[in-house]
Design a protein that fits this description.
This protein has 82 residues and is mainly β. The protein has no helices and five strands. Strand 3 and strand 4 form a beta hairpin. 0% of the residues are buried.
Amino acid sequence: MVPFPPAGDGWGFTVNQVDNRADVETDFADGVLTVTVTKDGLPYDLKHMITLHILVPDRAPVELPSVQEEPLSTDGASTPDE
């Protein structure tokens, strides 16, 4: 069982104790993460669940355009745009 992604790998997994004898292999190729679960060399259907821990890179910051507010008229009347 791996509690968190190993540094530099970007992913890891945790298997429930019910399935702790299962072997889990992960492979990342061509942008696809493949998770294979076996027991005694044969495909294995988990009895409970597997939790994947996936790290993704931070997005580039997005600059929002500045908003310019028009001042309200002092007499409380609506401005021409309203």
